């Protein structure tokens, strides 16, 4: 019988200086790729169907069997929808509104979330409780007072600030960042920064914001999507004279006769900027999320 030294027995039979073997990584099998392909196809089919319907005439939307290949009317329908619904102004307004709302929400949420998570001040728990209560109140209850404030007090109806300013802060964003920074941002790191002479503002810009990049990316994505897809409040505050994309899209669906090819062509126009955001910023957003998951 061969005796194994105690030191090798404690290290699992390895010799001194020998590294442990890395655990074998599981590789995705054929079933996994088939399942992911089916899920991707089902998710992308509505967008493809919009392209097919927008590239045919109106009669193709209700034909049976349905057409599954694009037609030859796509460019003509896009031009007609762009001109009829004033999509040039609508796209510009939506880009301005969604971008400014996203920047404001990310800045205010990271500031307030940092304060609630790491700063100690009197009344912080009470303020956090009030913040959580506001999340339980339906937004529709404040539509009438908000419209009176915008129209009679400030005179902002028909202007973009009537949509941007009320959405510049988010209680959900503050709570989300606060919960993330409570665990992801070590207090010792802030204390080390203070010992090096950093003020609270410098700590926020140089320590808190880099640490909050993953949650800020997620919050920015959700905020941009909500601001881009918002319909009810821009319809009341801006009207048809200064529309966003969703308000302009509603003009194509109104009236006694609905041309589904034009409606879906307008849908493609309003969806294209969001797809571009995912195309160019998707890797950065996913990379930030994964980086935050590894750090946490």
From TrEMBL:
It is a multi-pass membrane protein. It is found in: Cell membrane. GO terms for biological process: transmembrane transport. It comes from the Bacteria. Residues 91-281 form the ABC transmembrane type-1 domain. Its main location: membrane. One of its GO terms (cellular component) is plasma membrane. Keywords: Cell membrane, Membrane, Transmembrane, Transmembrane helix, Transport. The keyword Cell membrane applies. Pfam families: BPD_transp_1 (PF00528). The chain crosses the membrane at residues 33-51, 87-114, 126-148, 160-181, 202-225, 260-281. Residues 1-23 are annotated as: Disordered. The keyword 4Fe-4S does not apply. Belongs to the binding-protein-dependent transport system permease family. PANTHER family: ABC TRANSPORTER PERMEASE PROTEIN MG189-RELATED, ABC TRANSPORTER PERMEASE PROTEIN MG189-RELATED-RELATED. This is Sugar ABC transporter permease.
């Amino acid at each position: 019988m061969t005796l194994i030294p105690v030191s090798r027995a404690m290290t699992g039979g390895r010799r001194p200086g020998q590294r442990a073997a890395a655990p074998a990584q599981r590789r995705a099998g054929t079933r996994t790729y088939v399942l992911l392909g089916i899920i991707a196809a089902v998710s992308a089919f509505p967008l493809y169907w919009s392209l097919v319907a927008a590239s045919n005439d109106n009669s193709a939307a209700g034909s049976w069997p349905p057409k599954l290949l694009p037609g030859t009317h796509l460019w003509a329908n896009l031009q007609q929808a762009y001109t009829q619904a004033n999509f040039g102004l609508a796209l510009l307004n939506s880009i301005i509104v969604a971008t400014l709302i996203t920047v404001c929400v990310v800045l205010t949420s990271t500031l307030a979330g940092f304060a609630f998570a790491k700063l100690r001040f009197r009344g912080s728990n009470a303020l956090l409780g009030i913040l959580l209560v506001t999340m339980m109140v339906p937004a529709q209850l404040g539509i009438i007072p908000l419209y009176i404030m915008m129209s009679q007090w400030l005179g902002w109806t028909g202007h973009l600030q009537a949509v941007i300013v009320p959405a510049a802060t988010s209680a959900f964003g503050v709570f989300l960042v606060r919960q993330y920074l409570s665990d992801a941002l070590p207090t010792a790191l802030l204390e080390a920064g203070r010992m090096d002479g950093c003020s609270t503002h410098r700590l926020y810009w140089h320590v808190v914001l880099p640490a909050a990049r993953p949650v800020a990316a997620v919050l920015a994505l959700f905020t941009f999507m909500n601001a881009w897809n918002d319909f009810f409040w821009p319809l009341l505050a801006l009207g048809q004279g200064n529309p966003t994309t969703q308000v302009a899209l509603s003009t194509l669906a109104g009236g006694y006769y609905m041309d589904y090819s034009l409606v879906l062509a307008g849908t493609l126009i309003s969806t294209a900027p969001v797809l571009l955001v995912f195309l160019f910023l998707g890797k950065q957003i996913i990379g930030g999320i994964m980086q935050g998951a590894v750090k946490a």
